[in-house]
Design goal:
Layout lengths: L1 E8 L2 E8 L2 H4 L12 E9 L6 E3 L1 H20 L22 E7 L2 E6 L10 E6 H16 L25 H23 L19 H9 L17 H8 L9 H18 L10 E8 L4 E6 L2 H5 L6 H4 L13 E8 L5 E5 L20 H18 L10 E7 L5 E6 L2 H5 L6 H4 L6 E4 L2 E4 L3 E7 L6 E4 L4
Antiparallel strand pairs: 1-2, 2-3, 3-4, 5-6, 6-7, 8-9, 8-10, 10-11, 12-13, 12-16, 14-15, 16-17
């Protein structure tokens, strides 16, 4: 199975394409089917550069080792660069490394990439500033932290020996300050030895008169010379304001046009990435959060089977991994994503996300054609019979008001009493509910669809009873 991983930073992007090792994943190994264990191609994009750096496993391994080694050298100041694959080798041999870094000045670094097929050809050079360099370092760190991508590739770190951590200051000069300090301390100790112990006398209290309230008022009204009176200084925030500032709530996207666009984008990217044959026999239901740019920012399994088969969906590959920081939360739209055993994908707005605030179904046009209503009675009843569970675990009738559009899709429902509300999960209404069908999208506009209301009664025995809400 073809797998792609992306590690995106503002000034750098790593894209890895490869395959999973089916033999390892199917032989009881801890390697899952979603693990990218065979690298086919690696692309490294740098901001401002038109063409990416591309190569196979040899190139990518050399890039990871060179980036890590040079970053440690740059931060520590200790010259510890070695030829890849031989960390104890001679520094001069790094000139023949496939990937190499050279410092140009304090804020400029040169990346050299040599072709393994043409040893004598000049290397490809790219100059990076420090911001681009450390975005590349962060991208490599994200890759190394992702244990589902090339788990066999790991950095072989070692401590720098004393011979490598040489300093340019001679031993005599380095020892001179310490020697002077010890001598000064000894002389000071001898001098203090001859100083007599001072006599300690308790100070005599000299009480000062406390200012009266009139004096305090006069001192408050008096402005020191040369200073201007304070002008409208803002008062410090209250604890409630500080709490709201430090922990802002995540805003929710409710605009109907934006929701419709994000719903289509979410469906397309999941449908394109879901290439595996389903191995489950029931629906996998997830709540998925999507940012305003269409990126998946998180997901949560809604049933036990979804948690068990989480690796069998592309959500873990598509979720965006943001760089940690203190940025304000971005608006999020919530969707219900259902992976069905027959390979079909269903994406709808999350039920608890009040999309009805933007489109009130109470204002939807009503279906009044008697022939259409009569047909919908049989259509709705047939759907409910087909989806009705084999065993009915209730003893009293359950009654609901159900909204249906012209093609028979259930877009709304409501329990008429508390008993029906408590036993909603024992009916097929939640399974058949498709709230996204309640709107009609045309030319970037969203309008409510025409709805017919029905009374549906589920009894412990027999077929569900369906009748128009206002009667025949």
């Amino acid at each position: 199975m073809s797998i792609q991983r992306e590690y995106i930073l503002p000034n750098c992007k790593l894209i890895l394409e490869g395959l999973s090792d089916e033999k390892s994943s199917g032989s009881g190994s801890s390697t899952s089917a979603n693990t990218l264990s065979i690298l086919v191609n690696a692309d490294c994009y740098v901001a401002g550069k038109e063409q990416p750096l591309s190569g196979g496993m040899e190139f990518f391994q050399a890039l990871v080792m060179a980036v890590s080694s040079y970053a440690q050298e740059f931060l520590s100041g200790v010259r510890a660069y070695r030829r890849l694959g031989d960390p104890h080798g001679d520094e001069d041999e790094s000139e023949s490394a496939l990937v190499q870094f050279k410092p140009l000045d304090t804020n400029l670094h040169r990346l050299l990439v040599r072709s393994p097929d043409r040893p004598g050809s000049p290397p490809l050079t790219i100059d990076l500033n420090s911001v681009q360099l450390f975005d590349l370092v962060e991208a490599v760190d994200q890759f190394l932290a992702d244990r589902e991508t090339l788990p066999q590739l790991a950095l072989q770190l070692r401590s720098v020996s004393k011979s490598e951590a040489k300093t340019q200051i001679p031993v005599t000069q380095r020892a001179l300050p310490a020697a002077i300090g010890v001598s000064s301390l000894a002389i000071a100790a001898m001098a203090f030895f001859f100083v007599p112990v001072p006599d300690i006398e308790r100070p005599v209290e000299d009480p000062k008169p406390q200012p009266t309230s009139e004096q305090l008022q006069d001192s408050q009204d008096t402005t020191p010379a040369g200073s201007d009176p304070p002008e409208d200084r803002p008062s410090p925030p209250s604890p409630d304001e500080l709490s709201r500032t430090s922990a802002p709530a995540t805003p929710t996207i409710t605009d109907p046009e934006t929701l419709a666009t994000l719903e289509d984008q979410l469906y397309d990217q999941i449908d394109e990435a879901w290439q595996t044959r389903p191995e489950f026999d029931l629906d996998l239901i997830y709540r998925v959060g999507v940012g305003a740019d269409g990126a998946i920012v998180g997901y949560e399994a809604q049933n036990d089977l979804a948690r068990e088969y989480s690796d069998g969906t592309p959500l873990s590959q598509l979720v965006y991994k943001p760089v940690e920081g203190g940025s304000a939360p971005e608006p999020v739209a919530l969707f219900e994503v259902i992976f069905q055993p027959d390979g079909r994908l269903q994406v709808d707005p999350w039920q608890n996300q009040q999309r009805e605030e933007a489109i009130d179904l109470g204002d939807a046009p009503e279906i009044t054609d008697r022939a259409v209503i009569d047909d919908l009675v049989y259509t709705l009843q047939g759907q409910l019979i087909d989806a009705l569970p084999a065993s009915r675990d209730f003893v009293r009738p359950l009654t609901y008001r159900v909204g249906v559009i012209e093609d028979g899709t259930i877009v709304d429902y409501e329990a008429v009493d508390r008993l029906s509300e408590e036993n909603l999960d024992k009916t097929p209404l939640q399974e058949l509910h498709q709230p996204s069908a309640a709107v009609v999208r045309s030319n970037n506009t969203v309008t409510p669809a025409a709805i017919a209301q029905f009374r549906v009664v589920f009894r412990p025995t027999g077929v569900p009873e369906v009748s128009p809400w206002d009667g025949f």
